[in-house]
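Q: Convert this sequence to structure tokens.
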Amino acid sequence: MNVLKTYRVGELTLTKIPELILTGFTPRTLLAHVGDDVSTNAPDWAVSESVDRATGSVLLSVHTWLVKSPHHTILIDTGIGNDKNRPTLPIMDHLQEPYLERLAEAGVEPAAVDYVLITHLHADHVGWNTRRSGGRWIPAFPNARYVFSALEQKYCAGLAVADGRVEAARVEANMGSPARTPVPGVYADSVEPVIEAGLAQLIKIDGGELIEGVSFHPTPGHSIDHAAILLQSKGERAVFGGDVLHHPLEIYRPDLVSVFCEFPEFARRSRQWLLSYVAETGALYFSSHFPATSVGRIMQHNGQYKWQFS
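A:
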């Protein structure tokens, strides 16, 4: 059995449920318009544990955060999933990972999950929403309430069927034309089945409290209505930033954006807000793709942000 490290924030316990480590990206292939000098000149905290020195590849983790409170069992984002058809993303195509077994090692069976909180509807954040059974996709967590953006749902549903909801969602978001659109097929196999099962709770991302101590905050740009999730307990805070940050190099250079960001300029703005918020509040930051522990602190000194793994 793997030893899963657990963190405490007030009365909450938080555990990373690993799915996959990605090694197929270099700084140049992950971060748009990055120069070779970025990884060469970056401080040690931005590359230590986060870059493979032998190959020059950045290390990216795909995982879920398991949160246990005195009253609820919560998952934040659900990774890539098994059996998913992702021909345009070979590293995510038809995986067979023991994800549910790892969740069981942490003491949680699928039926025990109360909430699945989703930062955005991209392929590597919603995959384990569903599993394959009898030739169809069914919710992997049958008793959970799946919570995500109503605007993002409208947009992705419209892309899936090419109807007028796409333009309506873009007008509502008011961010202009996207640089890219989400990977096809994700909505049909990982989102629509939980809606059809009556398990989805579509919300407006406005910072309002969802359940005690849990709120979704607008951080659009990587996706059309991306959210950062804040958990508070006993005066302590945890922030789950989703894909506002992919790698510590973006803390060193907040102007950079990943090649997967749909609205790059807004992604930059959201990153600046998130870095400032986490540094000023002293919140513990739980990343979606940083390797190693994936948890740490963001600090600010003389206008420069710095990362420290916990």
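The two ends are 22 Å apart (CA to CA).
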